[in-house]
Amino acid sequence: MNSLTQNKTLMGVIILAAFIILAFLFYSWSNPSSAVTNTNSEGSQMGQALLITLAGLNTIRLDGEIFTDPVFVSLTDFGVIIPPQPAGRRNPFLPTGTAN
């Protein structure tokens, strides 16, 4: 990269960072008190929704009959067995020749 391209890139990054900082400051100064109350009420509503979902999960009953279904039995495992590999040093950050 030549210096002109580097200067343009640096100026672009600086302008972008300044824009982000100004947008953040404008947003935080525009209505700071409602932002705090909205966050708390939204968090409370999300907490209630989470509790309702968790209560619904407690009512789920799993049927073991699926494991005897012919379609399930006909499934094939295409997994690959990974052979064991030799282990490296216990602490690779110690200099060579140092006791662990």
Describe this entry's structure for a reader.
The mean pLDDT is 82. The chain has a domain at 1-32. 59% of the residues lie in helices and 0% in strands. With 100 residues, it is an all-alpha fold.
Write the layout of secondary structure elements.
Blueprint: H1 3-30, H2 32-58, H3 70-73
Q: Which features would summarize this protein structure in a list?
A:
single chain; 100 residues; mainly alpha; 3 helices; flat
Number of extended strands: 0
Tally of DSSP helical segments: 3
Radius of gyration: 29 Å
Could you tell me the mean pLDDT? Answer: 82
The main pleated sheet reads as: none
Strand content: under 5%
Provide a quick synopsis of the model.
This protein is an all-alpha fold. It has helices at residues 3-30, 32-58, 70-73. Helices cover 59% and strands 0% of the residues.
